Amino acid sequence: MGLFGDIEHAAEGAAHIGGGVVRAGEDVVEHVGGMLRALYGFLTDAGLGGMANELEQLAEQANRLKRQLAGAEAGTRWSGAAADGFRDRARQRQRQLAELVGALDSARSAVAAAYAMAGNF
After folding, report:
1. Which of 11, 45, 98, 106 lies 20 to 30 Å from 39, alpha-carbon distance?
2. How far apart are CA 47 and CA 13, in angstroms?
3. Which pairs from 11-20 meet CB under 8 Å and 24+ separation?
4. What digits encode the pLDDT tens for the residues 81-111?
């Protein structure tokens, strides 16, 4: 075969291997693209945009309830052990509602971020 024949044969082999690598890379890119399209479809079909809005509305309702409870506590004109107990319980519920609002806001942010990311695929 000779030196040039060996070089030519080696070059053909390398080209064949390189072509296989390129085709494999294209297959992987196509597969990943399909997975991302499926994920986007799942996320948008799951109604994440609507879910984020619902979580925001729930947080607003909890905030309204917290304000009403604060108003009831502040408006208490009676005194004694029962009034003190009511005020303590009202403050406890206000703290719990504040925690709920924080959790709802965090959930809304996470859902909104997932929805935004889905739009970028």
Report:
1. 106
2. 52
3. none
4. 988 898 899 999 899 989 989 999 998 898 8
